[in-house]
Design goal:
heterotrimer; A mainly alpha; B alpha+beta; C alpha/beta; A: mainly alpha; two-stranded antiparallel ribbon; two-stranded antiparallel sheet; globular; C: alpha/beta; 4-stranded parallel sheet; 7 helices; 8% strand
Chain lengths: 419, 617, 233
């Protein structure tokens, strides 16, 4: 069966866009209620439970209420930018999803439909390019509000997102080194086991690129402004940061944008490191569409559904990790955040790229073909690197409080004085 | 006129009294004794600066802690009294210097150069009594609004409900000119020129608009730095309605980027007039007011107040009452520290810790409720005893709490103490050196975190604290992290004290058997005519406290909690002064946050553990 | 003294009227139902906490009482995103303009809960500094008695707000009237403020001493104002 082409392709794409946007919005709604329930669970509370079954309709109530609430326009706000900012916050997060494959290809009477909205050749470079637009929403919202709290939030947000953009992009370089491709479907295939076609690594990239996953995830946390990197909206200091002055639906759009961003980052981690829609320990779902149109494996509709479920499950687990981190950790301080970004992450990622490059060079010189053993060697290297990394990041060595240095190194401060 | 307990030989032989008499023979004529026994030296108001300088600087005096500086007014026409309550860390001596300032010449020398604590305290005396202090750098109202026009509230000629009608008060409050709300120093920061005589001139570009300081551009062009690349500082207003100010504290911050150049705290948004209102209440009716001052650890205030009045009455409470008060006091120390821990964690971003500590607080609330019926507003003490004896089963519940509470504390410590972000956010932040801390009059865990082992429970034991075995944790660096460690350790020590107290809790009556002070049991009141008369008089008039004055202090969860009380022998206090430790501790904030980041302001403010009810009173 | 039933009902002219005079039809009632359902189930509180009551408000949000069950756990510290102002604690005259401003910054529809005796009436502080009931400053929808009210009490008050929202209608143009010119003015007429602030209960032994001479504070403050005016000219 050949991939769909021509008019059927156009129709299928439109269908996918519509379906996809709906699913994403639904997922955002579920993510908000999921976050509230999970945080309730972590804090020994019940969370929303009055509206609908298990409080599931809570989000709908919030949505309708915000839709009908008075929109405020602060006197000192710069009107066009004030209105544009929420749009810019929500837009990149949603269109990022276009390049994410979320299930195995679906066979239809008109041909094989790949479950990705746009399989662009530039792949995740598109992700990086669009992702960096998100900063405009934050910066613009903060500046245009005409409030100093918003301004500080916006400034923090733009600095933070620009800084971590670098680490985010660099943390994907080892992935290119390994796969030689930037297309997301290709990256998913590389993590599956195939007997025919180009060689693959037969394992999820979480193993050969463990440290890369860590960098990508941390940068992703920072990109989405989630704790411990939620400085632009640090509640204790800046009320709600750049969206302090926004009310009603405009505020909701910021929130939707944030959650869509979280889901996007979780989906990207899934695709890049957790095998995408691949179901582990089962070879039946190994379906690959080569660039010349040949299809390896047997696509069926139920496999599409199953893999969709696998993708959803992996993504939700990652969202759970996001929520879990948020309700556990304290928040960084602004300068610590910048230090971490520029003085540590950037260098560490660069070193990591070099190490991986040399190891790959070495492996290929030794002559191990791409596959399980190739990945295993890389995994061992990554384990060693991870050990070194966590040793370096241990308390006291990376994040420092003030510069006054009143505290001598080590030693517990509080000591009993004889009673 | 207020009479004072006669001077005994002990007070006269106090080394400071002798030295003062030798040095200022005429100026320090009158020496009396406080109800607690330490000497009170009445000095001539004209030499107050000189005498206090001597006491602060002479090496054999070295009164380095200005515990309190308060005013008192005995009645219309009487002179205003100003008390300086001193404590010497080195010699462990207590002394009170007092002066009577005549109404026609309300002026004293400022002692702000001797003790930093005097800054706010003198402002408060000015605000409440209109005594001005020569040489004070910034003498203006502190608790009342800057443009308060009704007078000096604590003078006896000031009516309890103010001079204006209620509607006038409301409409004046709402129609205040924004410039009146801003203080002089903020206007200065915002580029307004403040002339020597107190006038205010708007910056040129704003004068045309007639606007108030509020826009993003705040510094007038002529004040801008030469180098345009340095940019201009911005002024942000944090509070009074802000999630991280723990109430209605208002901080005006001048920022260079995110770094604080200048911080000016504004208080008084919760000034409730406790001290004035208590002058219109009977001695026991004041108890409910005390728990509304520190609503984080209410019983400590109840206990301290009752102790102060009992010192004036010179009665000895029963042993059972003493132990019960120790248990309740330590429970409330835990209660206060737990709220501190939770809210500080929120401020640094760890929200869940707040809910974990609140679960433990709920358990203490249950104990409160079982005993007093109230969760926060306990009003548990009465002069001469408690409101009632402990209910059946209460001690078992308290024992259970003491046994299980440390587990939660361990959990919270696991979340925070070795957390890299927590350490990074708290270590080396807001460092307060021991000298500065003492000079600021800072007390409690904040002082101990700076390495000074001053705890009233050890320095001047009350309620038999000398019989308990407990440690006073002391920090070394004096930063936010040390304050955190010290408070966590204090909670553990409090558990130790509670366990010991529950162990030794004796039987017997909880109240003294003097029916002129405590209500007799109903059966007895109905049975004998004497008791019935006492009952009637207590209910209709209240306790009569002999004329005298005292300044009594206990260790509350925030620091040294002082009660300066004057009685004229009636059923109501003439003066009821509460020395809230938070009021004095928060005065050190501008120094602590200078040069730090905005996020640190929040952490440092939280680490001082302030409660606005006590700051503003 | 005027009898209490002559008191005006509040700032909203339409408030307290059951019959709005507008015919109801199926469309408006169903729409009202949906909108009111959403509004009452998504009340984001703006915690205006000042004193003891604020601690009980925190307790209401904590694990044991958890107002998050009603969708109210999202405490909105920015008034722009809040629907419900909970004034918890005593409000002083110094704080009054702040309270008014925060209320004015909240977008419609908005409701106000006065939590505790002090916020509702001044409570036990009938003195020179405490506002005798915040309804002299902002319109109040529900008063929660108690000193402080228990969390159950606050939750009951919040449920009453939900009940109140159930009865509202979009079709009533007077339901959410707001007078922009009233910003910075008391919420009640002066005579009403005097009336509600009359001494009562234990405070009857206090009286207003008037006609006393000016103090130097008066002089100082007045001087400053006059001088400032000069500079402005």
């Amino acid at each position: 069966m050949n991939p769909v082409a021509g008019g059927a392709f156009a129709l299928a794409t439109v269908g996918k866009v519509v379906l996809f946007f709906t699913v994403l919005m639904l997922a955002v709604m579920l993510a908000t209620i999921f976050e509230r329930k999970v945080c309730g669970f972590m804090q020994d509370r019940s969370g929303p439970n009055r509206v609908g079954p298990w409080g599931l309709l809570q989000v709908i109530a919030d949505g309708i209420k915000n839709l009908l609430k008075e929109e405020t326009m602060p006197e000192q706000a710069v009107r066009p930018f004030f209105l544009l900012a929420p749009v810019l916050a929500i837009l990149p997060a949603t269109i990022l999803f276009a390049v994410i494959p979320f299930a195995s290809p679906l066979p239809t009477p008109w041909g094989l439909v790949e479950m990705i909205v746009a399989d662009v050749p530039i792949g995740f470079l598109y992700v990086l390019a669009i992702g960096s637009i998100g900063v405009y929403g934050v910066a613009m919202g903060g500046w245009a509000s005409g409030s100093k709290y918003s301004l500080l939030g916006g400034l923090r947000g733009s600095a933070q997102m620009v800084s971590y953009e670098v680490a985010l992009a660099l943390s994907l370089v080892p992935l290119i080194l390994l796969t030689g491709d930037v297309r997301a479907p290709e990256i998913v295939s590389m993590q599956q086991t195939f007997t025919a076609g180009p060689a693959t690594y037969a394992t999820w990239f979480v193993f050969p690129l463990l440290v890369g996953l860590f960098f990508f995830f941390v940068s992703g946390l920072a990109e989405t402004n989630r704790l411990p990197f939620d400085l632009p909206e640090a509640e204790a200091e800046l009320i709600t940061g750049y969206h302090t002055e926004y009310s009603a639906m405009k505020f909701s759009m910021f929130m939707i944008g944030e959650f869509a961003h979280v889901i996007t980052v979780a989906a990207l981690v899934t695709v890049f490191f957790l095998g995408g829609w691949d179901i582990p320990f089962w070879q039946g779902d190994n379906i690959r569409v080569l660039s010349d149109g040949t299809v390896i494996g047997e696509p069926t509709w139920w496999k599409t559904l199953l893999t969709l479920g696998a993708f959803g499950l992996k993504t939700s687990l990652l969202v759970l990790v996001f929520v879990w981190i948020r309700w556990t950790l304290p928040r960084f301080r602004y300068d610590q955040l910048m230090d971490l970004g520029w003085k540590f992450m950037l260098e560490a990622v660069t070193v990591y790229i070099l190490v991986i490059a040399f190891v790959i060079l070495g492996i290929e010189a030794v002559g191990i073909p791409a596959g399980g053993w190739y990945a295993f060697v890389l995994f061992l290297v990554n384990l060693a690197l991870a050990g070194a990394l966590f040793f370096a990041m241990d308390r006291g060595t990376l994040i420092r409080g003030g510069a006054k240095g009143a505290r001598s190194a080590g030693g517990d401060a509080a000591q009993g004085q004889g009673g | 006129m207020v009479r004072v307990a006669p001077l005994d030989g002990k007070a006269a032989s106090h080394p400071s009294v002798r030295a003062l008499r030798e040095r200022f023979s005429e100026g320090a004529r009158r020496v009396e004794s406080d109800a607690l026994g330490y000497p009170v030296v009445w000095i001539d108001p004209r030499i107050n600066g000189e005498a206090l300088r001597f006491l602060r600087e002479a090496p054999d005096q070295a009164y380095d802690l200005l515990a309190d500086l308060m005013g008192a007014h005995a009645g219309i026409g009487a002179p205003i009294q100003v008390w300086y309550q001193l404590w010497s860390m080195a010699h462990g001596r207590q002394l009170r210097i007092a002066c009577e300032v005549p109404m026609h010449d309300l002026e004293l020398d400022s002692v702000t150069d001797l003790w930093l604590a005097a800054d706010w305290l003198e402002r408060e005396v000015w605000d409440m009594y209109g005594v001005s202090f020569r040489g004070h750098p910034d003498l203006r109202r502190i608790l009342m609004p800057e443009n308060y026009e009704e007078g000096f509230p604590l003078r006896k000629d000031f009516p309890l409900r103010g001079r204006f009608s209620r509607s006038a008060q409301v409409s004046r409050a709402l129609s205040r000119d924004l410039i009146d709300i801003y203080a002089v120093d903020e206007l200065e920061m915002a580029g307004y020129a403040v002339t020597d005589d107190g006038g205010v001139r708007a910056p040129p570009e704003r004068a045309a608009e007639g606007g108030a300081p509020g826009g993003i551009r705040d510094v007038s062009p002529d004040e801008q730095p030469e180098d345009a690349l340095e940019g201009e500082p911005i002024l942000i207003n944090m509070g009074p309605q802000h999630p991280a100010t723990h109430g209605v504290l208002r901080l005006v911050l001048q920022l260079d980027g995110e770094r604080v150049v200048r911080c000016s705290p504004h208080i008084g948004y919760l000034h409730t007039g406790f001290e004035k209102t208590c002058e219109f209440r009977e001695w026991n009716q004041c108890v409910p007011y005390t728990d509304r001052m520190d609503y984080l650890a209410p019983m400590l205030y109840n206990i301290g107040y009752a102790g102060a009045v009992e010192a004036l009455l010179d009665v000895e409470i029963t042993e059972r009452c003493r132990v019960v008060r120790v248990i309740l006091g330590e429970l409330n120390r835990i209660l206060g520290h737990l709220l501190w821990l939770g809210t500080t964690a929120i401020d640094i971003g760890a929200f869940s810790v707040f809910l974990y500590t609140f679960q433990e607080r709920e358990r203490i609330y249950n104990l409160h409720e079982a005993y007093t019926g109230g969760r926060i507003t306990t009003s548990v003490t009465r002069v001469g005893g408690m409101m009632a004896d402990l209910p059946v089963g209460w001690t078992a519940a308290a024992r259970d709490f003491a046994a299980t509470f440390p587990e939660t504390l361990d959990e919270v410590e696991r979340l925070l103490s070795r957390n890299a972000i927590w350490q990074g956010r708290t270590m080396d932040i807001g460092v307060l050196s021991a000298d500065r801390a003492v000079s600021y009059g800072v007390t409690g865990p904040t002082l101990r975190a700076s390495g000074v082992a001053y705890d009233v429970r050890k320095a001047r034991p009350y309620l038999g604290y000398e019989e308990y075995d407990f440690d006073v944790p002391v920090g070394t660096a004096g930063d936010v992290y040390d304050r955190y460690l010290v408070r966590v350790e204090e909670m553990r020590q409090s558990v130790r004290i509670i366990e010991q107290a529950l162990e030794r809790l004796p039987g017997g009556p909880i109240n003294i058997d003097d029916y002129r002070i405590v209500l007799p049991p109903k059966g007895e009141a109905m049975g004998s005519i004497d008791t019935m008369i006492s009952h009637f008089k207590l209910v209709m008039e209240g306790v009569r406290v002999p004329a005298g004055e005292t300044w009594y202090s206990i260790e509350s969860s925030k620091g040294e909690l002082g009660f300066g009380i004057v009685s004229d022998g009636g059923t109501k206090p003439v003066r009821c002064r509460f020395r809230g430790p938070s009021f004095i501790n928060i005065a050190s904030l501008p120094e602590l946050v200078r040069g730090e980041l905005v996020a640190d302001v929040v952490a440092i403010n939280a680490s001082l553990d302030v409660v606005l009810g006590e700051i503003d009173r | 003294m005027k009898p209490l039933d002559t008191l005006p009902t509040g700032a909203h002219p339409g408030e307290g009227r059951l019959d709005t005079g507008i015919p109801h039809n199926w469309m408006t009632t169903k729409l009202d139902y949906v909108i009111n359902w959403a509004r009452r189930n998504s009340l984001w509180p703006m915690p205006f906490g000042t004193a003891c009551c604020a601690i009980e408000m925190m307790a209401s949000a904590a694990s044991k009482y958890d107002i998050g069950r009603f969708g109210m756990e999202r405490m909105s510290f920015s008034p722009r995103q809040a629907d419900l102002m909970i004034v918890a604690g005593r409000v002083t005259y110094k704080l009054a303009p702040v309270l008014r401003r925060v209320w004015d910054q909240m977008p419609q529809p908005k409701w106000c809960v006065s939590m505790g005796a002090c916020a509702s009436s001044g409570g036990m502080f009938d003195n020179y500094t405490i506002v005798q009931g915040i309804d002299t400053i902002v319109p109040v929808d529900v008063y929660v008695p108690g000193c402080p009210p228990r969390p159950e009490g606050l939750i009951y008050g919040l449920l009453m707000i939900q009940e109140k929202i159930k009865g509202e209608s979009l079709a009533d143009p007077r339901a959410r009237d707001e007078a922009p010119e009233a910003v910075g003015r008391p919420n009640l007429p002066p005579e009403t403020i005097e009336l509600v602030a009359q001494p009562f209960g234990n405070s009857t032994n206090q009286n207003r001493m008037s006609g006393l001479g000016p103090t130097s504070a008066l002089a100082r403050s007045r001087d400053r104002r006059e001088r400032r005016l000069e500079h402005r000219d």
